[in-house]
TrEMBL record:
PROSITE patterns: ABC_TRANSPORTER_1 (PS00211), ABC_TRANSPORTER_2 (PS50893)
Coiled coil regions, renumbered to chain: none
This protein's UniProt keywords: ATP-binding, Nucleotide-binding
InterPro entries named in the record: AAA+_ATPase (IPR003593), ABC_carbohydrate_import_ATPase (IPR050107), ABC_transporter-like_ATP-bd (IPR003439), ABC_transporter-like_CS (IPR017871), P-loop_NTPase (IPR027417)
Annotated ABC transporter domain residues: 23-262
Family stated for the protein in its record: Belongs to the ABC transporter superfamily.
SUPFAM superfamilies: P-loop containing nucleoside triphosphate hydrolases (SSF52540)
Name this protein carries in UniProt: ATP-binding cassette domain-containing protein
Superkingdom of source: Bacteria
Organism of derivation: Ferirhizobium litorale
Length: 265
């Protein structure tokens, strides 16, 4: 009975943590001149939650994510992080708030090692005063620890140009973990990679979720979203047309919402 009681208590604590909205968007809109890219979108993202963001090309997904990442300022609406309203003028401010983005092109340096990419812009140094040098030993060790936490086979000393698509994703995700991100925004992470590498990337997303990190997953791949997401949001022509638990939706419904065959989810 004591063991059962402890499990119930732990589950209760986990559910309470998941109910905390780390990110809230309220009536967010973005227009570029006469073009309305995002129109009056509201959403809530909880700690340890994976949200699939789906829609056709031009639906407004990338624009919405870029506002969260600080690339664009909303024309209207508010962004709240941990209940407090924030205004983001540039990506570095989003990163300071614990918001990291993994771009589709990953923004990695092919001629550098995995560890060097993980610490790019955050390099560790040792020494005294102006006589400091890069602390490769510590960076290799820490990068290796992060890859182990992610259960990735990526090795810190391997060059990025020699890596598979799944390993490259691991490097990009490890960079967000080094920054102790609260929210990770992922743009088409499984595009143009093999089936085996897709499975590796989906496992990386699950590792982020299990560590209490909220993930927004932009994807056109229905099986991937239904495999890892807790929630699905569908956008069409700049508007949110569905926002529901993944268990209450289906690939057929999402496809209908994306194409307009179904008006509202």
């Amino acid at each position: 009975m004591a063991v059962i009681g402890r499990r119930i208590k732990l589950c209760g604590l986990w559910e309470a943590r998941r109910l905390v909205a780390v990110l809230e968007l309220a009536n967010i809109s973005k227009h570029f001149g006469a073009i309305q890219a995002v129109n009056d979108v509201s959403l809530s993202l909880e700690a340890g939650q994976v949200v699939g963001l789906m829609g056709d090309n031009g639906a407004g997904k990338s624009t919405l994510v870029k506002m969260i990442a600080g690339n664009f300022r909303p024309s209207h609406g508010t962004i709240r992080l941990d209940g407090s309203e924030i205004v983001l003028h540039k990506p570095v401010e989003a990163r300071q708030h614990g918001i990291e983005i993994v771009h589709q092109d990953l923004a990695l340096c092919n001629n550098l090692t995995a560890a060097a990419n993980v610490f790019l812009g955050r390099e560790l140094r040792r020494g005294i005063g102006p006589l400091k040098v890069l602390d490769y030993k510590t960076m290799y060790k820490r990068a290796g620890e992060i890859f182990n936490e992610l259960k990735s086979e990526t090795r810190p000393r391997d060059l990025v140009k020699q890596m598979s698509g799944g390993q490259r994703q691991a490097v990009a995700i490890a960079r967000t973990m080094l920054a102790e991100a609260k929210i990770v925004l992922m743009d088409e992470p499984t595009a143009a990679i093999s089936v085996r590498q897709v499975a590796e990337v989906l496992n990386l997303i699950r590792e982020l979720r299990d560590r209490g990190i909220a993930v927004v997953l932009i994807s056109h791949r229905m099986p991937d979203v239904f495999s890892v997401a807790d929630h699905v949001i569908v956008m069409r022509r700049g508007k949110k047309v569905a926002d529901k638990p993944i268990a209450l939706s289906s690939p057929e419904e999402v496809t209908g919402l994306i194409t307009g065959a179904i008006e509202q989810g």
